[in-house]
TrEMBL record:
Annotated source species: Chironomus riparius
Protein name: Protein farnesyltransferase subunit beta
Assigned protein family: Belongs to the protein prenyltransferase subunit beta family.
Any one of the GO BP annotations: prenylation
Lineage: Eukaryota, Metazoa, Ecdysozoa, Arthropoda, Hexapoda
Annotated segments matching region Disordered: 412-438
Cofactor: Zn(2+)
Assembly notes: Heterodimer of an alpha and a beta subunit. Heterodimer of FNTA and FNTB.
Repeat in keyword set: yes
UniProt xrefs under InterPro entries: FTB (IPR026872), PGGT1B-like (IPR045089), Prenyltrans (IPR001330), Terpenoid_cyclase/PrenylTrfase (IPR008930)
MF terms (GO), sorted A to Z: protein farnesyltransferase activity; zinc ion binding
Biased composition (Polar residues): 423-438
Catalysed transformations (reactions): L-cysteinyl-[protein] + (2E,6E)-farnesyl diphosphate = S-(2E,6E)-farnesyl-L-cysteinyl-[protein] + diphosphate
Amino acid sequence: MEGHTRNFTEIKSAKFDDENLETLTSIEQIKVENLVEKCFDRIEQLSSMDNTLPYFYRKEHIRFLERCLRFLSTGYECLDASRTWLVYWILQSAHCLNFKFSYEVLGDVIHFLKKCRCPSGGFAGGPSQLPHLAPTYAAVLSLCLIETDEALEAIDPEGIKKFLWSVREENGAFRMHVDGEIDVRGAYCAITVGRLSGISPQNKLFEGTANWIAKCQTYEGGFGGSPNLEAHGGYSFCGAAALALLNDVSTVNLKSLLRWAVYRQMRYEGGFQGRTNKLVDGCYSFWMGSLVHVIQMLIEKNSCHDGYTINIDELMFHREALQEYILICCQKPHGGLIDKPGKPEDLYHTCYTLSGLSIAQNFNSTKQPIVIGNPDNEVLPTHPLYNIAPKAVMKAYFYAQQHPIESEEDLVGCTKNQHNDEQNPANGQKENEGNADQ
């Protein structure tokens, strides 16, 4: 379905008003809006000659990814401990662009990720480094995206389970690594790799985790990294997605979370900020866009319990405005996506900005995607909880069912039948894959 851009002249009235009280924050906000305005004005002028604008530089983005998978600039040296992340950002971006690397290249990727696997379980950010939840998450998602038995076998579910126990706290929280920091990222990463490895939400490993996550919800409605910290877009996604994967939102205020989330969309730019009074950033296209998606799914699922209902046929943010910001302001013509106008391209922003574009276009599986500009601007759907291809999630579920690692002693508070229901990929498809396509 064709989406329509806003009238860029009319929406100038939505620009920030500092009410004659300058602050460092207001000065930076006005600077960004002026940069965005230049992008909007240019596309408005060109649209009079070409009504298929804005243009999506698909081929250029693919070439950027191909180049980065083999060769990186010296600027990436600081990410030596995040090499599994680099792989994930590239593979997920390629999925959104409907591009497949050759079997030879993917074989090399599997070989590299195996080198990052640790004897004590889990993955490190690079060979011969220490296991860490964040690169473990990135490595597992990367292997799932490849969608082969060889890749899924490389996950090593027993090792994953062993590592998760080593970073678990008695209250259900998770450290990022042994003796490392505790925050809601750890809980989300642990639950994600656990679910994709075949570990049930009812496993004793996750006992108390939902209650700990709920303590991270702030008075604003969003989640902070830990209890009593400021609400943040990335942490809010991690908290909501983790609770969805645990099937437990009984102790959080979803209405307050939704209100906070939708107010993060910038009125003029169309993109999202990550915190109150912060600047727009392309990466929050996914963190916040998917968060709204997840919250709406959770509210619909739990409406029978609290009587609160919501229209689930449409996302509660301006989908076309988000696409405008991404396509007009966040693309580099030579390939790669960015934070905001004036910033350089990088793999992180390429991945999450493309994933946000996917969320904005694809919501309801019974309806056509909403795509602004040329229909060729459409990207593939991504799973709102895992941020990988929905079919990759289902293949991982099926593989885990065929190679179980749990026993009844691992479980708390559920019968054998309940456990079987949770592990049944058909049920997972109804609950999770359906969400991704909506």
